[in-house]
Request: fold
Amino acid sequence: MGQEALDQELAQPDRSWWVAHDLGRIVGFAGGQMAGDDFEISDVVVGADHRRRGIAARLVSRICYDAHVLNARTASLEVGVDNDAGRATYASLGFAEVGRRSGYYGEGHDALILKVALPLEADAEHALDHVEPAASIRPWPITAGSRTAACRQALADAGPLVLSIESSCDETAMAITDAHGAVCASVVATSIDFHARFGGVVPEIASRKHVEAIVGVFEETLAKAGEHFGCDTLVASDLAAVGVTAGPGLVGALVVGVAFAKGLCAATDLPLVPVHHLEGHLLANLFETPDLEPPFVASLVSGGNTMLVHVRAWGDYEILGTTIDDAVGEAFDKVSKALGLGYPGGPVISRLAAQGNPRAIHFPRAMLHSGDYSFSLSGLKTAVITYIEGENRAGRSINLADLAASFEAAVIDVQVAKAVTAVEQTGVSDFCVGGGVAANPDLRAAYKDTFGKMGVRVTVPPMRACGDNAAMIGIAALRSYRAGFFAPLTLDAQPNAPLGSWSVSDAPVCPSWEK
Reply:
């Protein structure tokens, strides 16, 4: 298929086409079109060196999702009779034989016609990796089985247990933390695959997925905590309090977590502890550096936030500067989308950048010399998109690795420069990072290299504590519980809550999270 024919095909209505790539190199594709109330999958192709990795199943799963959105009742395709691997793949998704085409692939090579009802009963991502969270994974009410003396003693030694809930964006997460700050269980269910189809987080989908997952996540968290203590499962009566992210974030997503927390507290008479999402990211640094004490400067960088904060004391936060437009993570996602690399953009841009030359393309360092702590990523994003469009018009191929490295360098240069100024002007000797973008290896390395030469200690959270999780929320929830700071059951989600909301001045318990 030529470029013109491809463009025409993609522009037609009632189509769905997906591409699988390995750092920008296409390794597979699949697609098809509506035919009445059936979606005919015409092509499923995976490169020989990438087969038997589940790529075909994932491609077909995504097409079937789109087909259902297009109101298709069924999806169909053809597969060679002798293609055992393909037949097994489609069977795992629920496809069944409904007919045969003799000589479809040449004389003596028949094709089987397979069809499946939509929506799929099993999503390829979850069929291959994990079970899709259901409303409940065990009978209700949850009851504790018989407990050994060792289990009862372990629970007594742990002290009051705090359940924490995080649902500010597209992760449904819960954790249980004991009185000593030890994370007894941490569970995260993500809906990222559903958002990837649209190139970013869709608030309505995020809310719906939270509703679908939250009961199962609660049950799994209790079960994992029970395993930690050597018993079948914990129950609500084992808990001392419920902490929940009350803001900031997507309002619909926050409401699900807050409503669940309030319902649990109302049913069990447990105290409700509100937690600020960004404070959770900030406190996640304690997993890496338990003796971290104010004052220090923190950079909070994620898909929705970019800010520098002077932590003068626990609960006393001075925001030095924020982004005036896009957040860092948002810029990564938009550049990735412009390059056709999918969502989320941070990980793929990071992997590409590791192979590229950060000086290959000069992109602007917006507000580098603004004289304040404000950030702007919109202009950089536009510059990258303009470069891409210019190279395409000129018919030149784009070195994705060099582009990614150059874009990333432009982001990091500004982040580091403003952080250095903040540390110098505040006179602190500690600097830390929080948020999903804190997982970027080049950003972490740049901070450590620059501040290491200045004699400033740099803390970055463990990789698993960078993204949204409930273990970090548990640090703040435990601190508030010990201080006796609770919220009434009239608590509402606050999507724009300023940093410092629901904070207490008490020092947090030094947390621990076993690998």
In short: The CA atoms of residues 168 and 250 lie 6 Å apart. Residues 123-134 have pLDDT under 50 and may be disordered.
